[in-house]
Amino acid sequence: MKQEIDFVKVSPTQNMTILVTTSHPRNDYIPIASRLMSYDSVHAEQVGFICRPTKQGAHGSLQMAGGEFCGNACMAMAAYLAIENGLQTSGIMELSLESSGSEHLVPCRVSKVNETYFCRVTMPLPGKVEQKSVYYEGEDLSIAIVRYESFFHIVIEVESFSLGWREKAEGLARLLGITPGTNLIGVLLFEPQSSRMNPLIYLPELDSMVWEKGCGSGTASIGSYLSWKRKAAVACDIAQPGGTIFVSAEYSEQGITSLAIEGAVGIVALGKAFIESGGSGRDANSHEISAMLS
Fold first, then answer.
1. Going by DSSP bridges, is the β-strand pair 92-99/234-240 parallel, antiparallel, or unpaired?
2. 3-state SS string for 62-114
């Protein structure tokens, strides 16, 4: 028996995002998302579910399939809500979103210029940024770890996005996937000379690994890393395969004090999908990674 799923497909910096607008049990999120993301369905890089908010002051609730926080999905939902509320050209709308992966409401600002929507999202601050030297596949790697409550990003400075680096990133992401209490691992290859990023996002619960066209949370982590490294505020565009996302970070003696991203968002499609029940899987690997992150 096929199930009807109402959805809107949104493109924040070509990080194709499906927002499910029908109500579904939380236990169904992963199988629904797995089917919707597949090539023979709606096809996207990630799926979020629009729910009724429970926190006072929230204009909507976004629950990602893997329980993670996603900056681009917040931009996508903010733009969708602004459209639903009739935002006019040259208008600005301020919204607060309830989101998975964040204990606090997420402030968003949406502006419309001609037919394009620009969204600014105030991002959660990382709990810690640190530099590590790790031994992986026969060589020492210098990596930065940007830690959040339920996920972390690894930043690796590279001279180019070579096949070798991409293969290293994928292997590292799978190893990191066994870390307890982590619902998202990002490995961000970063070219500091050109301010270019190539983001790999791995969701262990969905066993989903995607080289994303654009990554809002990854952009925020690059901004955090640069601010931490320079011990100063940063404000810059981070180029990605799907375009650029602007990041700004403020810094004080206590560390990073504010963090925000901004980018363009477009609505791609609106309609119904028809799916059958599915499942998801994941594999586990060695305990070697615990020493790497300790």
1. unpaired
2. EEECCCCCCHHHHHHHHHHHHHHCCCCCCCEEEEEEEECCCCCCEEEEEEEEC
Q: What SS3 state is found at 6? A: strand
Tokens 């320079």 locate to 230
Q: Spell out the alpha helix ranges (H) of 85-162.
A: none
Q: CA separation (Å) from 36 to 31, 32, 258?
A: 9, 6, 34
10 Å Cβ neighbour count for 131?
A: 12
Q: What CATH fold (topology level) applies to the domain 3-122+265-275?
A: Diaminopimelate Epimerase; Chain A, domain 1 (3.10.310)
**Same topology between domain 3-122+265-275 and domain 128-261:** yes
One-character DSSP codes across 229-264: HHTS-EEEEEEETTEEEEEEEEEETTEEEEEEEEEE
**pLDDT of amino acid 289:** 38
Tokens of residue 58, six digits: 């929230």
CATH number of 128-261: 3.10.310.10
Tokens of 141: 């790697």
Burial of 290 (0-12, 13-18, 19+ CB in 10 A): exposed
Closest CA to 167 of 135, 211, 134, 197: 211
Q: How far apart are CA 148 and CA 278, in angstroms?
A: 30
pLDDT, averaged per 10 consecutive residues of the chain (294 residues), comes to 92 95 94 93 95 95 93 96 90 95 94 91 95 88 91 94 94 84 89 97 89 95 97 97 96 94 94 74 36 44
- Going by the DSSP 8-state scheme, the letter that residue 59 receives in this structure is S
